[in-house]
UniProtKB/TrEMBL annotation:
Belongs to the universal ribosomal protein uL10 family. It comes from the Eukaryota. This is Large ribosomal subunit protein uL10m. SUPFAM superfamilies: Ribosomal protein L10-like. InterPro entries: Ribosomal_uL10-like_sf, Ribosomal_uL10_bac_type. It comes from Graphocephala atropunctata.
Length: 256
C-alpha cells in the first residue's frame, strides 16, 4: 500500500514534456466574400499604411516641395515684427537695466542651467548678503538697454540663457567664492572698473587686495626699471668724475 502511494505521488510530480494540440472549430462559418470589418483602430492603421500609386503628373499635386515646407523664414519674420513693435513696458525694463550697467562697478555674467526655484532663491540670498543683485532679461531688452553704450560688446554672451549680477563695489573675491558654490550657474566673464575680464583674469585680480595696492606695485616696478636705466647711462660719467676728484685731492709730488 505504501509503495502504491509513493508511485502515485511520483507520477503527479513527473513533468510531461510532450505538446498537446486541441482543435477548436468555430461555430460560425467565415464569409470570405463579405468579411467582418476590422476594429476601428486597426482600420485606421491599415488605411494609413495602404500604398498609393500616382499617375503621371499627379505626384506634384500631392507633394509639397521641401523648400515650401520650411517655416524658419516665417518664424524669423514673426520675430522681426515683434522686435519692431513698440512695447512701453520693455522700454521701462531697458531703462532700468541701463542704469544698473552705468552705476555698477562689478558686473558678472553667468550661464544658467535648468534650476529649481528653491536653489535659485538660495543663490539670490547669498548674493544679497554681499550687496549683489541677480537680474535676468531677454536678449532684445538687453540690446535695447546697451545700445549706444560701451557695454554693447557683451551682447555675444547673451546667445543662451544668461543672468547678470550687479554690485556697486568691485568685490571680486566675494564673487568668486559665491560662484564656486553656485552649481547651476557658470561664470562666463565680468566687467570690473569698466574693463571686461575673463575668469582667469578675475582669479589673477583676486590676488591683489585693492586698486591702490596694484597701482603702487606698478609704480615701484616702473621706478626700478627707470633707476636701473639711469644708473647704466651715468656709470661712465660717474667713474670719470670720481677719478678726477681723487686725482685732484692727491698731494703734489715734491722734487728734490
Amino acid at each position: 500500500m505504501e509503495n502504491l502511494a509513493v508511485s502515485s505521488f511520483k507520477g503527479l510530480l513527473q513533468i510531461n514534456k510532450g505538446a498537446f494540440s486541441i482543435l477548436v472549430r468555430n461555430s460560425n462559418r467565415i464569409n470570405v466574400q463579405k468579411p467582418r470589418p476590422p476594429h476601428y483602430k486597426r482600420a485606421q492603421i491599415e488605411h494609413l499604411v495602404k500604398p498609393k500609386y500616382f499617375e503621371r503628373g499627379e505626384r506634384e499635386l500631392w507633394f509639397i516641395p521641401s523648400a515650401s515646407q520650411c517655416i524658419k523664414q516665417e518664424e524669423e519674420e514673426a520675430k522681426k515684427r515683434c522686435r519692431e513693435q513698440d512695447n512701453p513696458y520693455e522700454r521701462l525694463l531697458a531703462k532700468d537695466l541701463r542704469n544698473w550697467f552705468l552705476k555698477s562697478k562689478l558686473i558678472a555674467f553667468f550661464h544658467c542651467n535648468p534650476i529649481k526655484y528653491d536653489d535659485k532663491f538660495e543663490v539670490e540670498v547669498r548674493l544679497r548678503k554681499e550687496g549683489m543683485y541677480l537680474k535676468k532679461m531677454g536678449k532684445h531688452t538687453v540690446n535695447m538697454a546697451l545700445e549706444g553704450t560701451p557695454y554693447i560688446s557683451v551682447m555675444p554672451l547673451f546667445a543662451t540663457h544668461t543672468e547678470i549680477v550687479f554690485c556697486s563695489e568691485p568685490k571680486v573675491d566675494k564673487l568668486l567664492k559665491i560662484a564656486g558654490k553656485m552649481r547651476q550657474h557658470v561664470l562666463l566673464a565680468a566687467v570690473v572698473e569698466d574693463r571686461l575680464l575673463s575668469v582667469s583674469q578675475l582669479r589673477a585680480l583676486r590676488q591683489v587686495k585693492d586698486l591702490t595696492t596694484a597701482r603702487a606695485q606698478l609704480v615701484s616696478v616702473l621706478n626700478a626699471a627707470q633707476s636701473q636705466l639711469v644708473s647704466g647711462l651715468t656709470y661712465h660719467q660717474s667713474s670719470i668724475a670720481e677719478g678726477l676728484r681723487q686725482f685732484a685731492e692727491k698731494p703734489p709730488v715734491q722734487h728734490r
